[in-house]
Specification:
This protein is of the alpha/beta class and 493 residues long. The protein folds into 2 domains: 158 residues, 3-Layer(aba) Sandwich (Leucine Aminopeptidase, subunit E, domain 1); 310 residues, Aminopeptidase (3-Layer(aba) Sandwich), CATH 3.40.630. It is 34% helix and 19% strand. The chain contains 13 helices and 20 strands. Strands 7, 8, 9, 10, 11, 14, 15, 16 and 18 form a 9-stranded mixed β-sheet that branches. A 6-stranded mixed β-sheet has the order 1-6-5-2-4-3. Strands 12-13-17 form a 3-stranded mixed β-sheet. Strand 12 and strand 13 form a beta hairpin. Helix 2 crosses helix 3, helix 7 packs antiparallel against helix 9 and helix 8 packs across helix 13. The mean pLDDT is 97. The protein binds ligand BES, manganese (II) ion (MN) and zinc ion. The site of manganese (II) ion has 5 residues, from loops.
């Protein structure tokens, strides 16, 4: 896809199709300086004939409209003018993309983004136009040999008023970097677990480092042993793929500026280990590295934008499989922090690899540490697929993440981390157990992590419900790269 910002009046625009928004009141989303009365009157008269409702996501194709040289006109419904919010705007953009895919067009002139959307400005509209188009046109076909259709590529001309030109150019820059980061995250998630192994993730991180001038270290088994990450290594024992511990350093801020540290769960396949999972949908546990992929995608975006800030990425990555040498229920592990853990269920492995990464994070004297993990099925039960679970030991950090989620439309909902829940992790034989029973399963998982994050401001994002979609539209979503990028951008000013 290609995007460029244009400010010329309609008569001067050339492309295969013109996209214009229409409200349910049958009002045309127009702009006096950009449009002419000829086309507005024409569209209004067509709307009076009743075939286009203007309901959100509805559409109508017309030909040879007056007032423009563009031969095709696609009307897209935006619903009720007063109710147009970010979510509905996204729906309209997706409807546009679905229709464009069926049309014989390559170049597209869009005016959808000039609609006024509750609480947002033109720069937001332009950014989300581009991002939503990129999201809706993403396909993962690399591994198909037959029916591998060439992906349709469009060129979009995004029209804004002259006075908004500069702002819109900045939005375009941000959106293209962000959509590349999101695409990177999606593809890593969608790759099969026989290709996307811990070694593969390490290689991808190193490639990324080279592209953007970021220092990347990939520690191997021996180096991980030296660090005494007994908990992480416990999980890795049941796999023939060697574990990796990836550290990325984007140090482009001031020398004395404390870094933001992002920690991503990188289980490249979670069979549950000896506490093996049932067979149904087990393939989806290839997505158990989506936290790691979101860290890499965020680094891609931050790298492309060359942001003047210090960000560290930490990724513990291994497989969780049953094996003769695998971790067993009852085993007791000694974590890097020295705290001991009784493993009561080997399927609660995410927290076992993250806890050592959280201890490792201390050495960076971080401003904040945020871990991102497909951690619990319980979080999906609590929040469904719309919001990521957010936990934090710091109210300001929680607020900053919530608002970054709102702006990016990649939302998170704060959950409690009360002391009351901690006793569910009591163990008769070690400092703690790795599970806290069925009640509040997402919360007790977060409580477990909190015991390793006492030395700094910390937040945990449980993305089990948001990192990928199941069913017919199965595929990684790229979340929460949008949220994380916005959080980092907000730290710049
Ligand atoms: N990766 C899973 C969590 C998960 C399950 C995410 C299903 C999305 C969909 C995690 O490692 C896990 O297995 N968690 C267990 C914890 C339990 C044993 C305490 C779970 O949620 O069932
Ligand atoms: Mn598991
Ligand atoms: Zn897992």
């Amino acid at each position: 896809m290609k995007f460029s910002i244009k400010t010329d009046p309609l008569e001067k625009q050339r492309s295969d199709v013109l996209v214009v928004g229409v409200y349910e009141s049958l009002k045309v989303v127009s702009d006096k300086t950009l449009f002419n009365t000829l086309i507005i009157n024409y569209i209004s008269s067509i709307l009076k004939r009743g075939d286009m409702t203007g309901k959100i996501g509805s559409s109508l194709i017309l030909y040879d409209a007056p007032g423009t040289k563009i031969p095709k006109l696609l009307l897209i419904g935006l619903g009720k003018e007063k109710e147009l919010d970010g979510k509905k705007y996204h729906t309209a953009i997706r409807a546009m993309v679905q229709t464009l895919k069926k049309m014989d067009v390559k170049t597209v002139t869009s005016y959808l983004q000039i609609a006024s959307i509750k609480g947002n400005h033109i720069e937001w509209n332009v950014e989300h136009f581009i991002n939503e188009v990129m999201d809706a046109t993403y396909e993962f076909n690399e591994l198909k040999t037959i029916n591998k259709k060439a992906k349709k590529v469009f060129e979009f001309f995004v029209i804004v008023d002259k006075k908004n030109h500069k702002m819109a150019e900045l939005s375009l820059q941000k959106a293209s970097a962000l959509s590349k980061g999101i695409e990177f995250t999606k593809t890593l998630g969608n790759l099969p677990p026989n290709i996307c192994t811990p070694t593969y993730l390490g290689k991808k991180a190193q490639e990324l480092g080279k592209e953007h001038g970021i220092k990347v270290d990939v520690l191997d088994q021996k180096q991980i042993e030296k660090l005494k990450m007994g908990s992480f290594l416990g999980v890795a024992k049941g796999s023939r793929q060697p574990p990796k511990f990836i550290v990325l350093h984007h140090n482009k801020g001031k020398k004395n500026q404390k870094p933001i540290v992002l920690v991503g769960k990188g289980i490249t396949f979670d069979a549950g280990g000896i506490s093996i999972k049932p067979a149904g949908d087990m393939d989806e546990m290839k997505y158990d590295m989506c936290g790691a992929a979101s860290v890499l995608g965020t680094f891609k975006t931050v790298g492309l934008l060359n942001l003047p800030i210090n960000v560290i990425g930490i990724i513990p990555t291994c497989e969780n499989l049953p094996d003769g040498l695998a971790l067993k229920p009852g085993d007791i592990l000694t974590s890097m922090s020295g705290q001991t853990i009784e493993v009561l269920n080997t399927d609660a492995e995410g927290r076992l690899i993250l806890c050592d990464a959280l201890t490792y994070a201390e050495k960076f004297d971080p401003a904040v540490v945020i871990d991102i993990a497909t951690l619990t099925g319980a979080c999906v039960i609590a929040l469904g697929h719309h919001a990521s679970g957010l936990y934090s030991n710091d109210d300001q950090l929680a607020k900053d993440l919530e608002s970054a989620g709102q702006i990016s439309m990649d939302r998170a909902w704060r959950m409690p981390l009360w002391e009351d829940y901690q006793s569910q992790l009591d163990s008769n034989f070690a400092d703690m157990a790795n599970i806290g029973g069925r009640a509040g399963g997402s919360i007790t998982a977060a409580c477990f992590l909190s015991r390793f994050a006492k030395k700094y401001k910390w937040a945990h994002l449980d993305i089990a419900g948001t990192a990928w979609k199941s069913g017919k539209a199965k595929g990684a979503t790229g979340r929460p790269v949008g949220l994380l990028t916005q959080f980092i951008l907000n730290k710049l000013h």
